[in-house]
Design a protein that fits this description.
globular; about 20% strand; TIM Barrel; Urease, subunit C, domain 1; binds zinc ion; alpha/beta; 12 helices; 8-stranded parallel β-sheet
Length: about 400
């Protein structure tokens, strides 16, 4: 097993830290030419290429981090299609799928998803797992076994996605205890229309439970076109009342887009104060939300990434569902996600904040030991592409090699 090597590559300037930066040749797209050497699975040398006229024929990225997925239901589209492609139908088809669910079926989907994800270049994945009262604990035992089995190739973080009131039940408390010994996370849904009093009550219970077992919370929140920001308002009010500092992630937050700019900045500042992190999920939001057959409007809600970043909120971009009732496409491929998200969100790939939301913020969100910055001493965990410019990264003919701890993955 050869875990040492050397390559001449282009790396986005903001994704590498290099001592000899004065001699670095960086092009107008922010790609710099470097020579990289790794020994025993770690980068031992990173330096500018001496010959400034020679442009490397490969591009290097750190292996990717997926912040939001649903590996328990991926590839169920064929058996459970949602041809109307809207949120309401996705939910009802999802519930039909629950009725046929067995631990074996879920584990089969999870194994398939993760094996594709590793091959495509992911090093870590946070996934939500549908959780409900009638479900036994055995599914979690199998998931944690798999998490351990794959740990040398992929870090898997699991969120129990349950109705909020589940966390106020004895089953909820039992699961919270189990999650606390496996780095698990409490999940839930806060999407209008909802009863404010009840939502406040259950969010409070959830915060107290998370605090008790030292767990994080990741909510599907404001994935909606009605009552913009209603969910985040209730969450902020509840957190203010309890003064509990539990790490909270807001997934989606898409209806915030319909607020006035000054309101977005106002909520952004409040979220930054509480260190609430955000995951924008443009693919499913654009696909499912605001499908008005009468007007055929193309107004699409998605978390207002740039305004939130301006308010110092750490924003990541995730993929969400793969080939299930919520989204019929995708294949756990970070380049598919970037090819869709970058043009649809008008994010320039040569800008620092864009690459932060795709590489560095996700590493921070999952609390990974490596921040994703390529530098001397970092793991030799790369995806190396045939290509010389951003257009090649988003071409369908993409050819890639994945290195895990310096070893070429086959
Ligand atoms: Zn989701």
């Amino acid at each position: 097993m050869n875990n040492s090597g050397k390559a001449e590559v282009l790396i986005p300037r903001t994704l590498c830290s290099i001592e000899d930066f004065n001699n670095l040749n960086t092009d107008i797209e922010g790609l710099c030419s470097v020579s990289i050497t790794w020994d025993n699975g770690f980068v031992t040398e990173l330096k500018p290429l001496k010959n400034k006229n020679e442009r490397p024929k490969n591009l290097l990225f750190p292996r990717f981090v997926e912040t939001h997925s649903h590996i328990d239901k991926s590839f169920t589209w064929e058996a459970f299609p949602n041809l109307a492609s809207n949120y309401g139908d996705a939910l009802s088809v999802n519930l039909k799928e629950h009725k046929t669910r067995t631990t074996d079926k879920v584990i089969e989907r999870v194994e398939k998803s993760l094996s594709i994800a590793i091959k495509n270049g992911y090093r870590a994945i946070r996934s939500h797992i549908d959780t409900y009262q009638s479900q036994g604990i055995d599914i979690w035992i199998e998931l944690f076994k798999l998490q351990k089995k794959l740990s040398s190739e992929l870090i898997l973080q699991l969120v129990a996605l349950a109705p909020l009131k589940f966390w106020d039940s004895s089953n909820g408390e039992e699961l919270a205890r189990l999650l606390s010994s496996h780095g698990g996370i409490l999940g839930g849904v806060v999407v209008p229309p909802f009863n404010k009093k009840e939502t406040t009550k259950f969010l409070s219970k959830m915060l107290i439970l998370a605090d008790k077992y030292k767990l994080e919370i990741d909510l599907h929140i404001d994935e909606s076109i009605i009552k913009p920001g209603a969910g985040i308002k209730v969450l902020l009010e509840t957190m203010d009342k309890f003064q509990i500092s539990v790490p909270v992630t807001c997934s989606h937050l898409s209806s915030l887009m319909f607020l006035k700019d000054r309101e977005i900045i106002y909520f952004g500042k409040k979220m930054a104060d509480k260190n609430i992190k955000v995951i924008a999920l443009p693919l499913t939001n654009f696909w499912l939300l605001n499908r008005n057959c009468k007007t055929n409007s193309l107004k699409r809600p998605v978390a207002p990434i740039k305004q939130l970043q301006k308010s110092f909120v750490d924003v990541s971009i995730g993929s969400d569902n793969v080939q299930d009732p919520w989204y019929p496409f995708g294949n756990f491929d970070p380049f598919y996600m970037m090819s869709c998200a970058i043009p649809m969100l008008q994010l320039n790939p040569w800008e620092r904040m864009t690459l932060s939301s795709l590489f560095l913020a996700p590493s921070r969100l999952l609390n990974l030991s490596w921040d994703g910055l390529v530098k001397k001493g970092c793991p030799a965990d790369f995806v190396i592409l045939d290509g010389q410019r951003w257009a090649d990264v988003f071409a369908s003919s993409l050819k890639r090699k994945v290195f895990i701890k310096g070893v070429l993955y086959r």
